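This part of the workshop introduces the protein records we will be handling. Backbone structure tokens are a discrete shorthand for how the chain folds in space. Once this layout is familiar, the rest of the handout is easier to follow. The record below serves as our worked example for the rest of this section.
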Amino acid sequence: MKKCRWCGEEKDLSCFSKNKNHKDGLSLYCKACSNEYYKEHYKCTRRALSKNQYAILKLIDSFYKEFGEFPTYEKLSKELSVSRQYIQQCVGTLAKRFNPSEIGSN
């Protein structure tokens, strides 16, 4: 039996994932608590990505209105202070939703 540090319940050892970094070779948290944590973490991460995608869309829109053309990946990367690969990933995700065929070309 082991006590979960999250919920405080005494549970059977089979309720804990393996973790070789701890003395007993088991996680500090039971599988149920770990699953709950990771589900919430996933939701938060998705929200953050959506905010970044929104920022990219907003920047593309303002650039297009001002200059009459779509910005390059390098221009977006410089404006948002993120990597070119990250911009490509976000634009790829946005393209699946909105199909902006000219984004990032140039």
Observations:
- The helical segments are 31-67, 73-80, 84-98.
- The radius of gyration is 22 Å.
- The longest helix spans residues 31-67.
